[in-house]
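TICKET: design request
STATUS: open
ATTACHED STRUCTURE:
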């Protein structure tokens, strides 16, 4: 039996660092510019100091919107990997290509919205379409 962590339990610093590294790696795979990386995390596009801090060993803040967004972004990637297991290039390029799930806009446009709704919406749409277990 495994213990579950409820939503109010703060994530420990080691786990937050792992999640931070995973989302930074994802940004590289998706070929996302620094400005878009920040926007996807819900940060100001000119907050380049944050990216430097994260690259140098910092972690996303506990209980932050950026941490929630990172979880959604990784969920999107997981669903895309499941759907396009034999096509890693599609997984890498999908967010940049307009498609019907996002009203013929590139998903990255939704992922870069100021509020978290865009990231959540893309996550739900991708998991509903491709699987992955939205919870």
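STATUS: resolved
RESOLUTION: sequence designed for all positions
ATTACHED SEQUENCE:
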């Amino acid at each position: 039996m495994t213990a579950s962590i409820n939503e109010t339990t703060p994530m420990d610093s080691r786990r937050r660092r792992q999640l931070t590294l995973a989302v930074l790696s994802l940004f590289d795979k998706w070929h996302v510019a620094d400005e878009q990386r920040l926007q996807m995390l819900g940060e100001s596009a000119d907050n380049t100091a944050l990216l430097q801090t994260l690259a140098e060993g910092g972690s996303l803040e506990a209980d932050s919107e950026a941490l929630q967004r990172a979880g959604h972004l990784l969920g999107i990637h997981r669903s895309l990997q499941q759907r396009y297991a034999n096509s890693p290039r599609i997984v890498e390029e999908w967010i940049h290509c307009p498609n019907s799930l996002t009203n013929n806009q590139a998903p990255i446009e939704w992922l870069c919205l100021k509020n978290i709704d865009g990231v959540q919406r893309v996550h739900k749409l991708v998991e509903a379409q491709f699987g992955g277990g939205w919870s």
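CLOSING REMARK: Residues 1-8 have pLDDT under 50 and may be disordered. The helical segments are 13-29, 34-40, 48-55, 65-83, 88-93, 107-111, 117-130.
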